[in-house]
Amino acid sequence: MVFVFLQDKDHKQFIILSIFIAYLLSILGFNYFFDDLPEVISYAYLGFIISIFNHFWIGYYAFTNIKKLDKDISTSFIFINIFILFWMIQGGFNLNILFGQSLVSYLLISELYLLIAGLFICLRKDSNLIFFIIPFSLVIQFILYSRSAIVGFLIMTAFVIIISKIRFRLILLSFFLIIIASAYTDYLQISSFERQLALFSNIMQNSSVIVRLELFEKFPEVFLSNPLAGDLGWHLDYYGKEGYYIHSYLSYLTSFGLFSLFFLIYFFSESIKNLFRDHNFSLLPIFFAFIVIVLIAKAWMYTSIWFLVGLLLANLKRE
After folding, report:
1. How far apart are alpha carbons 6 and 16 in whole angstroms?
2. Taking a C-beta distance cutoff of 8 angstroms, is the pair 151, 293 a contact?
3. What are the sequence ranges of the domains in the chain?
4. Which of 14, 39, 201, 296 is the most exposed, fewest CB within 10 Å of its CB?
5. Residues forming a β-bridge with 317
6. How far is Cα 120 from Cα 73, in angstroms, rounded to an integer?
7. If we measure between CA atoms, which residue out of 215, 212, 234 comes closest to residue 225?
8. In sequence order, what are the residues at sequence separation of 6 or more whose Cβ sits closer than 8 angstroms to the Cβ of residue 182?
9. CA–CA separation, 218 vs 7, rounded Å?
10. Phi-psi domain of 124 (left: phi exceeds 0; alpha: psi -120 through 50; beta: other)
11. Checking phi first, is residue 34 left (phi over 0); if not, alpha (psi -120 to 50) or beta?
């Protein structure tokens, strides 16, 4: 009976994901009850773990075929742009007000926009509509402040150009946009965009990047100190406060130990395998962009990519 149960694709994915979540929760529980992980941090991590489950199953069950995905993503794209534009108008297009003096997380908004705009563009990679959508979305993504999301958008756009049937015209559009951006660099520098522009100039001198590299260098030491079970509170031992973590999905190894790697390999290898099915191939640019982001810029608490994992494992039908 168990074998028959596992033969069902939905049951198999549910069981494996549930075991993964249970494993993460068990590590969290051990750190909370036996390793004095602070209660506030424990509850925050509990929320992140639950969000993995939520993101996965929304992607897995919300869309049954490409046509429904296309319709729902189109609606989401329209509404998120309306929301962002009204939000920016309210703040007078002043980034300090929008992000510095509000409770709105620029990371959350930026990553959500990348996900929705990326899916929207990928599903229209062969349409002339993207000659407008790509420049428009790039401007919005640039304004939304998150440099990792900007990098993700640029990577996604590059792959869209490569696999699109209208790639030659898209290449011409790219050169045109680069010329315009170069011409207006001085204007952008006096318009609170220095942080974003640092991506293309002095990124290695940026204090945030320097701190992230220093944290990344600690990965071998932290991992080898507890390779099997990890340590969710290692940063408290090193720095005495919250806010320091390895900005990569390698943080699964330092936080939850070696066994978490086996689950990651399963889910992401299955996603890549399904990605190369004909009706899923158009999603390659956005999935690859998120893979790069989680490898070089995001800790395990970044869970948006699990929506794409669920979406790909659902094996969308063409009709």
Report:
1. 10
2. yes
3. 2-313
4. 39
5. 65
6. 6
7. 234
8. none
9. 42
10. alpha
11. alpha
The CB-side HSE value for 278 (13 A sphere, CA atoms) comes to 3
User: How long is the chain?
Assistant: 319
Residue type, 133: I
24 vs 22: CA distance, rounded Å? 5
- Two tokens at 315? 């094996």
What single letter denotes the amino acid at residue 19? I
